[in-house]
Automatic annotation (TrEMBL):
This is YhcH/YjgK/YiaL family protein. GO terms for cellular component: cytosol. Pfam families: DUF386. The lineage of its organism: Bacteria, Bacillati, Bacillota, Clostridia, Lachnospirales. SUPFAM superfamilies: Clavaminate synthase-like (SSF51197).
Length: 153
């Protein structure tokens, strides 16, 4: 896992070419002007899903990993909470779904709790089991807008 801010002028030369291209795309495009949906960046090698949602009740998703793609979770609006741990410490829940490139896992104690603010990202590799959580206060509505960029391994 790598966390950081896309909005800072960082040198991402340490990333692979595909990861660097994906991060630069986030930095150089006005994503707020785009509708929610899926956008092709570089064929099947890099694509982005823009998602917006309002959360009124707690979300405690299940842990998941991906084999074919690295995830870049990038927050455009609101705050995104992620729990992250090494997949070797998790027990699979069902079989790996090759079509959706996802393996779900049984609940367990998390290894890391990451809170991403607007303009921040987390790069999640195939070994990073991760899940989103959100616990709004009673009567509160939380709005989250994020980009999930999928980068082929």
């Amino acid at each position: 896992m790598i966390t950081g801010s896309v909005l800072q002028e960082n040198d991402y030369g340490y990333l692979t070419d595909r990861l660097n291209q994906a991060v630069r795309y986030l930095e150089e495009h006005d994503l707020s002007a785009l509708e929610d949906g899926t956008y092709v960046i570089d064929g099947e090698d890099i694509y982005m899903m823009l998602q917006s949602f309002r959360v009124e009740a707690p979300i405690d998703a299940v842990y998941e990993t991906h084999r074919k793609y690295i995830d870049i979770q990038y927050v455009l609006e609101g705050e995104l909470e992620l729990l992250i741990g090494n997949r070797s410490r998790f027990i699979p829940a069902g079989k790996y779904n090759t079509e959706q490139d996802v393996q779900f896992y049984e609940p367990r104690e998390n290894d890391a709790h990451v809170i991403l603010q607007e303009g921040e990202m987390a790069i999640l590799f195939p070994e990073d089991a991760h899940k989103m959580i959100c616990f709004p206060k009673t009567g509160e509505t939380v709005r989250i807008r994020k980009a999930v960029v999928k980068v082929r391994v």
